[in-house]
Amino acid sequence: MNIIVCVKQIPDPETPAASFKVDEAAKKVIPAQGIAPVVNPYDPQATEAALRLKDATGGGKVTVISLGPDTARDAIKHALAMGADEGVLLNDPAFGDIDNFQTANALAKAIEKLGGADLVLMGRASADWDMGVVPTGVGQLLNIPVVTVAKAIETSGAGLKVERVLDDGFQSVEVSLPAVVSVSNEFGEPRYPQLRQIMMAAKKTVQVWSAADLGLGADEVGAANRAMPLEALYVPKVESNVEIIEGDTPEEKAAVLAQKLRAAKLV
Amino acid sequence: MAGILVVAEAAADGVSASSLELLGAAQQLSSQGGGAVSAFVAGQGGAQALLQHGASTVYVGTNAALASGMAEVLQPAVQAAIEQSGADIVLLAQSSLGRDLAPALAFANKTGAAMDCVELKINGGRLRATRAAFGGNARAEHTWTAPLQIVTVKGKSFDAPEAGAGGGETKTIDAAGAARINVLGISKAETTGIKLEDAAVVVSGGRGLGDADAFKMLEDLAATMKVAAVGASRAACDLGWYPPSQQVGLTGKTVSPNLYIAVAISGASQHMAGMAGSKNIVAINKDADSNMVKVSKFAIIDDYKKVVPALIEEIKKLG
Ligand SMILES: Cc1cc2nc3c(=O)[nH]c(=O)nc-3n(C[C@H](O)[C@H](O)[C@H](O)COP(=O)(O)OP(=O)(O)OC[C@H]3O[C@@H](n4cnc5c(N)ncnc54)[C@H](O)[C@@H]3O)c2cc1C
Ligand SMILES: Nc1ncnc2c1ncn2[C@@H]1O[C@H](COP(=O)(O)O)[C@@H](O)[C@H]1O
C-alpha cells in the first residue's frame, strides 16, 4: 500500500505556562529558551499506523510530507528514522504566516504532485493551534473520504476498517480507498527510532518544494490571503487566590477541608 | 442578509445540551445585531425544543440517510439551510460531528472555521471569535474576510436560553450527501450514574494516582456527594486506568461543575482547557508548586492515599 503521512513541527506543547511567551504585536509565539520544537505528538502515531499497514499489506511505500521552515526537516527525519521511505519538505518564505486552510491546499497539491496515494494519514490535530481541520480539508480538496480521530486501523477487503473515538464511545466504520484518516492518541505509543535507524535515515532522500513548485501563486498563501485573519494573540491572565489547608496530619487536613467545603455549601 | 444558523444535534429528549448552548450564543449575537436566529436539525424530533429555545425558523432535515450522523451525509443538508436562511454566521458544537462538519463546510464555502471558541461577539456587523490555542497557554481572536463565518463553540461557554412559547416556523430540507464511509456499529461508553458534563461535582484523578485501582477510591469519594461524577486526566486515560470517555480537557470533555476536585493532577494547560470554568477547584497534590494548586480555591499538599480516605469519612460525618 502506498501511504503518505503528513507531519508538522510545532513548539513543544508541554512548554510550561511560565516559559510560554507571546509577541502580541507580531501575533506570534516567542520560542521558549532551551525548549526545542517537536513533532506534533499525534503525527508519529500516524507514521506508526502507516508503517504497520505497509507491513500488513506486504509492501508499498511510505512518503512523509511536512510543510514548515528549514527546521521542519527534523520532523521528516524522525519519521524516516521510524521507517518511512522518503520525505518531502514544503518550504517557502511565503508559507511563513500560512493558516490551516492554506496548509491543506498546499498539502493536497503536494499529494497530487506525488501522484496520489492509497491512503493519507495525519494526526487528529496540531497541538499548536489546536484546530484539527487540515485532514478534512485535504480530503475535500482531493475529493476522497475522511475518517477522523482513529483509534485503530486495519485493512478490510479493498479498503479499511477504522475504529473511531466519539464523544461518548466508539464507532466502527469501513471506508474504501483512497481515503484520509486522522489518528488520535488512543492509537497507542509509536515506535522510538534507534541510533542505527537515525543514522540510516540521514541517507534517505528529502525533496524540497516551493510554493511555485506546487503551482501556488502569491495570492494563495500568506497572512494577507487568510479567509480568517488572526486579530490578536495573547496569554490570558490567571490569578492565584489559593488557600492551602493547614494541619499536622493528612487526616486533620481532610477534616478542615470537609468543614470549609460545608461552610461554602459545596458538599 | 445577515443571520445566525445553529446546527443542532438531535438527542433522545429533543436536542443535545450543547445545541441549546449554541442557541444561547446565537441569542447573544442576535442582540448585538447579528440578525435572526435559525436552526438546522436532522429529524422532526428536535424542532420543538429549538423553537422553544429561541430559533425563529427551524430547518428540519428529513432524509432518512441523515440518521447515520456522519458529516459527509449531513453537509449538503446544512449547506441548503445556510443558503435558505441567508445566515452569514454558522454555529456548531465542538462535538464529534462539529469537528468534522465545520471544516468541511468552511472548505466548501472558501472560508475559515474557528474551532472550539469560548467567546463570540459582533463588532461592526461582523463576528469576532476568541479561542484557546497552544494547548490553552494562549488566546487567539479571529475575524473573517470571507462572507461566511463558521465557528464551533466549546461546551459550557454559553448558557442555554430559558424555554418559551416558541412561535417560529419549521421548513423541511430533503438533501443528503453520499455515504462513502459505512458505519458498522457504535459502542456507547457505559455511563453509570451522572454524566460528567452534567455533574454538580466532578472528582478527577491523574497520573499521580499510580494505578487504576485508585479510581475506586475516587468513585467512593464521588459517591459520598451523590451529585458527583468521576473524571480523569489524559495521562491517566492513556495508561488505561480510566475510559477515554471520562477524560477532561482539550481533547476530552469540558466540564464546569460547582466543585472540581483534582486528585494528583498537575494542571497542564491542556487539562485546564477542560475544567478552568469550574466554579470552585480543590487540589489534592503532593506538589505545592503545581499549576492545579495555583488555580484552586482550597488545596491540600499531601499524599492523596491518606487524604482521600479521610475526606470520605469526614464528608460522611457531615451527613
Ligand atoms: C495535544 C495534546 C492534547 C492534550 N489533551 C489533554 C486533555 O484533554 N486532558 C488532559 O488531562 N491532558 C491532555 N494533554 C496532556 C497534558 O499535557 C498533560 O501531560 C496531562 O494532563 C498530565 O496529566 P496528569 O496531571 O495526570 O499527570 P502529571 O503531569 O504527571 O501530574 C501528576 C501529578 O500528581 C501529583 N502526585 C504524584 N503522586 C501523588 C500522590 N501520592 N499524592 C498526591 N499527588 C501526587 C504530582 O505532584 C503531579 O502534580 C494533552 C497533551 C497534548 C500534547
Ligand atoms: N504544516 C503541516 N505540515 C504537514 N502536515 C500538517 C501541517 N499542518 C497540519 N498537518 C497535518 O494535519 C494534522 C491536523 O492538523 P491541524 O488541522 O492543523 O490541527 C496534523 O496532525 C498533521 O498530520
Report on this structure.
- The complex is a heterodimer of chains A (267) and B (319).
- Chain A is α/β, with parallel strands linked by helices.
- Chain A is 25% helix and 27% strand.
- Chain A is built from six helices and 15 strands.
- Chain A has a nine-stranded mixed β-sheet, with helices on both faces. Chain A has a two-stranded antiparallel sheet with strand order 2-5.
- In chain A, α2 (73-82) crosses α5 and α3 packs across α4.
- Chain B is elongated.
- With 319 residues, chain B is of the alpha/beta class.
- Chain B has two domains: 4-173, Rossmann fold (3-Layer(aba) Sandwich), CATH 3.40.50; 196-318, Rossmann fold.
- Chain B is built from nine helices and 17 strands.
- The model of chain B has no long low-confidence stretch (mean pLDDT 96).
- In chain B, the strands form three sheets. Chain B has a nine-stranded mixed β-sheet.
- Classes of the chains: A alpha/beta (267), B alpha/beta (319).
- At the A-B interface, α3, α4, β9, β10 and β11 of A face α4, β7, β8, β9 and β12 of B.
- β15 of chain A pairs parallel with β17 of chain B, so a sheet runs across the interface.
- Flavin-adenine dinucleotide (FAD) sits between chains B (135, 206-208, 233-236, 247-252, 264-266, 268, 270-271, 274, 284-287, 290, 303-305) and A (13-14, 41, 127).
